[in-house]
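INPUT
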Amino acid sequence: MNQAVIAIHGGAGTITRAAMDSSREREYIEALEQVLIAGQRVLADGGSAMDAVTEAVRLLEECPLFNAGKGAVLTHEGTYELDAAVMDGATLNAGAVACVTRLRNPVLAARAVMDHSEHVLFAGEGAEAFALSQGLELVSSDYYFTKARHEQWERARAVKGMALLDHDAAALANGALAGQADPIDPDNKFGTVGAVACDAHGNLAAATSTGGVTNKQVGRVGDTPVIGAGCYADDVAAISATGTGEMFIRTVAAHDVAAQMRYARVTLEEAARRVVMEKLPAIGGRGGLIAVDRAGNVTLPFNTEGMYRGLARVGEPVMVAIYG
Amino acid sequence: MNQAVIAIHGGAGTITRAAMDSSREREYIEALEQVLIAGQRVLADGGSAMDAVTEAVRLLEECPLFNAGKGAVLTHEGTYELDAAVMDGATLNAGAVACVTRLRNPVLAARAVMDHSEHVLFAGEGAEAFALSQGLELVSSDYYFTKARHEQWERARAVKGMALLDHDAAALANGALAGQADPIDPDNKFGTVGAVACDAHGNLAAATSTGGVTNKQVGRVGDTPVIGAGCYADDVAAISATGTGEMFIRTVAAHDVAAQMRYARVTLEEAARRVVMEKLPAIGGRGGLIAVDRAGNVTLPFNTEGMYRGLARVGEPVMVAIYG
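OUTPUT
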């Protein structure tokens, strides 16, 4: 039997230490720890990697600190559009939803698509109709509301009149975007949550969920629900990504990690490093990913200043980190 | 300079010879030839691979014989939902639209997303709003109507009350589905069109477009607009797929062909064979793909009885085929 392990991320980007005071930092660290402890418990109780990542991402969606589920960012129209995906490495089964606006937990809808549909991906109202038929909880858009995200959206509309994208710390330091509530918001394109796990049987799974980009155009879909881009698992590796979604789609980032391992026989760490440190930057891609292989190796690379992240091996203390 | 080449497909599946009389066969062959001649002309005039595949797929969408654009199949609700994607191997630029209902040429919308948006994928009304802002032509749903597809939809509702999927020739031979107008309809899940090309500079491109599955649930998205699944191009290979979309998503089929070539150093033909003849059947996947590499090699494998397909090298006669 393997020593089971789960890893999570809560988004990557320009996490400015100036905006992150110690009480706020503690809030993030404690939230990450609680999610890891819950995922670890699923694995310790003999649960599957799939069950562990679903539960971890559900909890990240429930937490208003992260850009998924409650706490999601707003579109240009002031609405919410959420995406999520899950993939089971043991079977290559997968499920995903895109552009949903009324589901409390998009990751549970993705899981239901995988478990109870002949399809893999549903978008928009069709996704919600399916989720409803599966007894999943619908919410009004008020549910997603947080003061911090709404203020961020108002700033984005005022300052740029477009999506808040490629800011870096330097740009932030001198301007209208400083001093906001969420230390990662300036680079909110990178706001996504995810989990990967290897269970005691060596089976792998991945799950990813996001509210997308603040002030994004309605209908834009990023890498999160695209199997192979923001979420992928097979019998070699499981990967969940966060970052400038378009570049992760164009590099088929998550699948490329597993493909390098399978075909070029490189290690998990080296395959992930090449994607995050070479392939993505080559086309302007920023962000990171978390990945686990069937031996339980874990790697958490990112090319930004920070990534909310952590891992927990069954029987060991959880580890979390924010900066590089 | 390379000898430029373009290849196309018009869907794969159980093309029953019984349903395909010689005049109908001629109709399909002539349609494929006309599209190839047009694509060949773009390349002969020094056009890019990207321009050649866009034009070929636009013409396939215009042709009512194929399940894309005019001639698309109907959803369970009697509506139309179309998907398309393009990818430029020279730059890894890509564009895609999913679940559009009012665009005359979804492939032109995908191309506009690639050329004029910072995003890669738009779904639903957001995709249409973007296309409209780019001056693309909207149509009423009457535009897509063909008598053959409507009759097929009515049969699907009557016979199965669900999507017309995994029929095989044997099942067809004895029943209610025989004698219909379109010889490939019984397996219409496989109805998709696509093109791949290598231009004189050795640059590669791919484009794919579909009306989806007859009687499908609203909101279902197949592999067509998923970069890496039904459409992919890089500097190694360009691939367009057609088949049971869900399995092409789960195997990240198009990207896997290129990844095998890049990392395992296998040939285009061998990489495509493994995906179509081994990986897809292992999870019940049926269909085929067309692929080209930068040396101008072309392969057109399928694991079904037939695939509408063809290729044209600049300066040579076009070649088309239907059966295996």
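end of record. Chain A is about 35% helix and 25% strand.
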